[in-house]
Specification:
Length: 328
């Protein structure tokens, strides 16, 4: 293995461990991980201890920067997300007959990774049933009680039988793709046991899911942009906000297409800007769209560095580039 290949492996290993374990990982953790995967690299590791330590600190600092910029308030026990989670778990645990049908309840996505934008990011719940049984009669009153006007806009619940969850993880799906499954695999379990814990999610299934999502969201975005020319249903600022969400979601899926070993990454929308800069700054197609990603992240936070009209034009070019990329 060449020196450049080894350094690339170190960076990817650190990124993977951060995705899975958070920024408490140590130099020893990284070295053990590499040796477990590639024991033949022990001599090279010994020669590169200063480099590994330096890269670990650098990448961890970038993660801290993401959290400082993205999290509106601490993920403490008193924020609205945590209160919603507690109420949901309490209702499940006291639900009697309903509880017997539930395999697992978990949270996945940006909140599970502690990078959510409080009050803005969705709180994504996955409720996995043990079999294909209809639990709506008992579940609907619980969900209605939880979805108060204050949290309705962030509450996102998907109910799937265990069989479908595992199938989607391996073969993909639209509502719950392999990318969603990857995020859920490393999500925060609230009740029961995660059925994805020992399921292998392949690079091929992640790439297929990313292409599917780009085609779906890209087409919807272009249609929305076309409709804006003939409609006054949205203010320019509101339209820019919805386009910003599409841009960040497309950026997330583009990252899964260009990263080596994409199944080792759990990417959320608050992290897209930093990862775009890290991995696509020299990309022949997407480097020119880094500003669009930056503007999308700012607009999501209510900050406009460009006019809504300019951002709409930037979005159209970015969407067209992503759609063309998956066709070639």
């Amino acid at each position: 293995m060449s020196e450049n290949e080894f350094k690339k492996l170190v960076r990817e290993t650190i990124q993977t461990m951060l995705q899975q374990s958070g920024d408490n990982i140590t130099f020893t953790d990284v070295v053990k991980f590499i040796i477990t995967e590639k024991p033949e690299l022990r001599p090279i590791i010994k020669k590169n201890v200063p480099f590994i330590k330096k890269e670990l600190e650098r990448i961890k600092e970038e993660w801290k920067k993401v959290r400082a910029e993205s999290v509106a308030e601490p993920m403490g026990e008193t924020n609205e997300y945590e209160m919603l989670i507690r109420n949901f778990v309490r209702k499940i645990e006291t639900s009697g007959h309903l509880k017997s049908h539930i395999e697992c309840l978990l949270v996945y996505g940006s909140y599970a990774k502690s990078v959510a934008i409080i009050g803005e990011s969705d709180l994504n719940f996955l409720l996995v049933t043990k079999s294909k049984v209809d639990i709506s009669k008992e579940l609907v009153p619980i969900v209605n009680a939880l979805k108060t006007p204050e949290v309705e806009h962030i509450f996102n619940l998907l109910v799937l039988p265990k069989e479908n969850v595992i199938k989607s993880a391996k073969n993909g799906g639209v509502r719950f793709s392999s990318i969603h499954a990857l995020s859920a695999k490393y999500g925060r379990v609230l009740y029961g046991e995660n059925p994805l814990k020992n399921v292998k999610i392949t690079n091929e299934s992640i790439i297929a899911a990313a292409k599917q999502q780009i085609k779906l969201i890209g087409t919807q975005s272009l249609n929305f942009i076309a409709e804006l020319s003939n409609s006054n249903d949205f203010s320019p600022e509101d339209a820019a906000y919805y386009l910003a969400l599409d841009v960040l979601t497309l950026g997330l899926n583009v990252l899964y297409l260009v990263l080596e070993n994409p199944a080792t990454y759990v990417i959320t929308r608050p992290e897209v800007q930093l990862m775009f800069e890290e991995h696509l700054s020299n990309h022949k197609i997407f480097s020119k769209h880094a500003t669009t990603i930056q503007n999308a992240q700012a607009i999501r936070l209510g900050i406009f560095h460009v006019t809504p009209e300019t951002f709409k034009q930037q979005t159209q070019k970015f969407v067209e580039a992503t759609l063309e990329f998956i066709e070639n």
